[in-house]
Amino acid sequence: ADLDALNGAMVRHGWLKPDHGLDMTRVAEVASLMNRSLIGPDPFTFTREHARRVVESTMSIQGPYGDIIKHVTLPPDHIMLNRIQLGVMALLGRLEATGNWSSIFDEYILGAAPVTPLGEMASGWPRPRASVLGAELAP
Q1: What are the pLDDT digits (tens) for 92-102?
Q2: Over the range 114-135, which residues count as b (16 or more CB within 10 Å of their CB) and which as e?
């Protein structure tokens, strides 16, 4: 992971203060855990255990990343998205859903070629505005 780029993005989007002084390797670990399904081209299976680890690691200051979580600020416009992400993750974990989620994400956000039949059917639909995504993801 490019730790400087991660730090810059987290500071720019209001997740961390510029002078946070955190070990960015540990910040990258918790960010990777939260977004594991979107990292890499391999299929990922959500499990209840994965959902439990994410909640424990990202929500509890007594958890394994409590030293990091104490310094993270959830920007107001991310509060509902964060709750939705955790809820969907819990549901997918209960279903033990497997998918190539990173390719589906790339398809929806970056305009990559469809990888599923549903993606084929939705290929002509409008995509999110760049202002919603942030400059890093905008096509």
Answers
A1: 999 999 999 99
A2: ebeeeeeeeeeeeeeeeeeeee
